[in-house]
Design a protein that fits this description.
Blueprint: H1 15-34, E1 38-39, E2 45-47, H2 48-55, H3 60-63, E3 68-70, E4 76-79, H4 84-93, E5 103-112, E6 124-133, H5 138-155, E7 160-166, H6 170-184, H7 193-201, H8 215-219, H9 230-245, E8 251-252, E9 264-272, E10 282-286, H10 290-293, E11 301-307, H11 308-317, E12 330-334, H12 336-352, E13 357-358, H13 366-375, E14 380-384, H14 386-391, E15 393-398, E16 406-409, H15 413-418
Parallel strand pairs: 1-5, 7-8, 12-13, 12-14
Antiparallel strand pairs: 2-4, 3-4, 5-6, 6-11, 7-9, 9-10, 10-11, 14-15, 15-16
Helix pairs in contact: 1-5, 1-11, 5-9
This protein binds one RNA strand of 76 nucleotides through residues 2-3, 5, 8, 59-61, 64-65, 82, 111, 113, 115-122, 125-129, 194, 205, 210, 259-260, 269, 277-278, 280-283, 304-311, 333, 335-336, 364-375, 381, 383, 385, 387, 395, 397, 399, 405.
Length: 419
RNA sequence: GUGGGUGUGGCCUAGCGGUUAGGGCGUCAGGUUGUGGCCCUGAAGAUCGGGGGUUCAAAUCCCCUCACCCACCCCA
């Protein structure tokens, strides 16, 4: 019979990967707390409107990538495709506007996008994200970028390039889009097929076209930075200044655009210097208009999200990450019925004392039991047969390095093992 | 969503029209009496991703399908 497989684009995380994942998550949470960000956990499912209204009806994320379904009560729900809108919904729902501003939050968890899978691109993906809601200060933009940069640095993920841009307000962007249309209009016939389509759907996307034939038209295109109003320009200037004083290297890339409608002003991306394929490791931006889209009062916000799988991929490529899986301290070698019973008691005693113990399977030959103990990587084998059991002792045998085995009373074992 | 590549026991892989589908790693059991790591022996485990077809004969050729991967699209 045909065997079941995990759903397309969704993966099991096996024990050998878990160590790396835990390292990434622990580091992320630690760094977030260093900046006084506190964890928020929202449901994996939201009212579809949370994303439809905020992310933008026209975006690909909503148009073709969102898992939508109706529950038995007829409510229209969505598997969350991203974190920011959900965090903002929670901010409004719980009246966080009356907390000290900005409210600094981080989250980590699975997200869902109905994409065609590829390496580093999955239908269920894990993201770590941080949001600061309630302040439009450029210092907060810089703080988020610094947090994200520190996370990568702490993980040993060098080789990343930070690219930043400002896409202004909805109004200045509208003027820019108009100017882009005018600019590309004369070239339309010579543009690539994709870009001709983008001309209709999303002109901004033409800017990051990889097509050779689009290059000239793109190179001479106007820059969004020339369309920002005075306050947005000033805001961007301050962000850059703060980054400099924080010692964070960046490049301004006026061609960074965003697929989600809610972004305003600052946007940024971290990419491997040797960029290729699904390479963006994390990206963020400011979203001053988002709260109103969700029906709340005008409230500025800024945040980023980073893909755990993509971090893991990059760490593996660079040969970073935790060096070895942690081995158990002790493996018991139970012999005979009385010995097996005693081994169980000793194991629980040791665990209570904080020593990790793998219970050896009774009934095997001693040779097999010792082989298993050795293969486990444990520091000690603890032999408990009928003979030992009768005397209330165990044979403690070091498996690494030299060192003689010795007979130790049950009560002394924990101390003997800890050395 | 578009175009392309790949798919052999848990993992890596040989075979590429007629083989009992071979090997390595791993797993389990042994190598006499309660002691591992090396070595040796043995065992289990594959209808060759799945389904159809061509052929006297298919893991090997063709079609469909599924999954992964690559380039787009898009994004973390």
């Amino acid at each position: 019979m045909a065997h079941y497989q995990a759903p397309r684009g969704m993966n099991d995380t096996l024990p050998e990967d878990a160590e790396l994942w835990r390292h990434i998550r622990d580091t992320a949470e630690r760094v977030a707390r260093l900046f006084d960000y506190r964890q928020i956990t929202t449901p994996i499912v939201e009212d579809a409107g949370v994303f439809l209204r905020s992310v933008g009806d026209e975006s690909d994320l909503v148009q073709k990538e969102m898992y939508l379904f109706e529950d038995r009560g007829g409510d229209r729900l969505a598997l969350r495709p991203e974190g920011t809108a959900a965090v903002c919904r929670a901010y409004l729902e719980h009246g966080m506007g009356s907390r000290p501003q900005p409210v600094r939050l981080f989250y980590i968890g699975p997200f869902f996008r109905y994409d065609r899978p590829q390496a580093g691109r999955y239908r269920q993906l894990w993201q770590f994200g941080a949001e600061a809601i309630g302040s439009d200060s450029p210092a907060v933009d810089a703080e988020l970028i610094e947090l994200q940069a520190m996370l990568y640095r702490e993980l040993g993920l060098t080789d990343l390039v930070l690219r930043i841009n400002s896409i202004g307000t909805a109004e200045s962007r509208a003027r820019y889009i108009e100017a882009l249309r005018e600019h590309f209009w004369p070239y339309l016939g010579s543009l690539s097929k994709d870009s001709q389509r983008r001309f209709e759907t999303n002109v901004l996307r033409i800017l990051d076209s990889k097509e050779e034939q689009d290059r000239a038209a793109v190179a001479s295109a106007p820059s969004i930075l020339d369309f920002l109003d005075e306050t947005d320009t000033l805001h961007f200037t301050h962000v850059k200044r703060f980054l400099e004083s924080a010692g964070i290297e960046y490049v301004v890339d006026p061609f960074i655009v965003r697929g989600l409608d809610y972004y305003t002003r600052t946007v940024w991306e971290f990419e491997p210097a040797s960029a290729a394929g699904q390479s963006t490791v994390g990206a963020g931006g400011r979203y001053d208009g988002l709260m109103e889209l969700l029906g709340g009062p005008a409230t500025p916000g800024v945040g980023f999200a980073t893909g755990i799988e993509r971090i893991a991929i990059n760490l593996r490529e660079q040969g970073r990450g935790p060096s070895a899986e942690q081995a158990v301290d002790v493996v018991t070698v139970p012999l005979g019925d009385t010995g097996a019973a005693a081994a169980l008691r000793v194991a629980s005693m040791l665990r209570a004392a904080g020593v990790s113990v793998r219970a050896g399977v009774p009934g095997r030959s001693m040779k097999a039991a010792m082989r298993a103990a050795d293969a486990s990587g444990a520091a000690y084998a603890l032999i408990i047969g009928d003979r030992e059991a009768a005397e209330g002792v165990a044979t403690l045998k070091p498996l690494r390095g030299d060192g003689e085995q010795r007979t130790v009373a049950f009560a002394e074992l924990a101390a003997a093992i800890r050395g």
